[in-house]
Amino acid sequence: MKSRSLHGLGMLIVMTVLLSTGTALAAPASRAPQISVRWSLGPSSTFAATRFDGEYYAPAKRIYFLGFRTTNDMTDGSIWYFDVATRTYVDTGTDMPVPVSNYQIAPLMDSTGLGFYIFGGRNSLAQIVKDVQVFYPATGLTADITTDPWPGTTPPGCVSLPANGVAVVANHAFVMGGLSTSANGCQDSQSAQTWVFNPVAAPGTRWKAGPNLNVARAYVTPAVLNGTIYAIGGDTNSGGTLFAVPTVESWKPPAGGWNDAGVADLPVSPGCEESQAFSFTSGPLANGIVLAGCGQWPNATPDTYFYSATSNTWSAVGALNEPRRNQAGVQVGSIMFILGGYDCPGNVCGVNPTQTSEIGKGGASVARPGFARPLPKGSPAGNPATT
């Protein structure tokens, strides 16, 4: 997930209270890091959602969600928010112009003000679309930016599904990777493309091509730390089968390109995808990134990993209460918040979404004898592709 350094005192107070009942988890003693990440269950939503994202709007102390995939594989374009003060979920009564799932939100300032942008996605007809859409939280208005549609493609020339591969640096959105599938009427493939979106450029000129990833893949989990974008994990699509990969690359725009060799890969086989990541510049998790959960389509594990940019290493530092993938994620200060996603108890998931949320916070390691990180159970080498 893109780095979010927004601050909201009300959010911090409420979520700190919610965390008071959390149980600390740590990695096995043989690999015990100096920190751990503790997760506790937060308020459940009144809607079931997956393949979506959230973004915090500090002036109103709300977390907005811009539509989602819901039960029975249906697409819902409803814009909801979580009210931090009342701990309730509210339907705004407004829908996105084109309801989609499989997106991540980029908070960007344009000529109108702060807008929450989403790029492409999968519509209610299960088709991958080019729409660039924006929601303005200050006014509740939406727009479809028809002058600058999503330009990403896979090698066969298919429209790519960037899904959660979106990061924000210096008021530019960086959209990386993507896939196309025969199930969507095209060909099974993946993209290495990176595209850069400038919301204040002249209409029709807002997209510029960036450097290609070293490893073409989809469902990348991005994070931004000190101006550097990390492209974590993802899937390759071979003959209609998705394979999770452990690849991690980094790039500090605008100069240069993606660095694969100099960044440690994920410490899990076959890899992780369809997750959320959070970066930290201060506190016990300083100069590091937390990967919340590990998707391995169609399964998921609850594992939480920590990347130290100082030592260029990954460590297992805890576990979610509920294995999940395709969840929304929001960071407010030192607090991590995830909601929904596919419900994966027993590593069987991908049918209907969960309505639970979890609150995460880093702290000192409290490794306990006998604790073992949950491992994937019977994950196949690959699985039929789906979007």
Provide a descriptive summary of the structure in words.
The structure is a single chain. The chain is mostly beta strands and 387 residues long. The chain has 1 helix and 29 strands. The longest helix is centred in the first third of the chain and has 10 residues. The two termini are 18 Å apart.
- Low-confidence sequence ranges: 1-32, 367-384
- Strand residue content: 35-45%
Q: How do the helices and strands follow one another from N- to C-terminus?
A: HEEEEEEEEEEEEEEEEEEEEEEEEEEEEE
Counting H and I runs of at least 4 residues, what is the number of helices? 1
Helical amount:
under 10%
The value of Rg in angstroms is 19 Å
Structural class: mainly beta
Mean pLDDT equals: 88
Q: Give the tally of structural domains.
A: 1
At the fourth level of CATH, the homologous superfamily is Kelch-type beta propeller
CATH architecture: 6 Propeller
**Annotated CATH topology:** Neuraminidase
Termini gap: 18 Å
Count of individual beta strands: 29
- What coarse outline follows from CA principal-axis ratios? globular
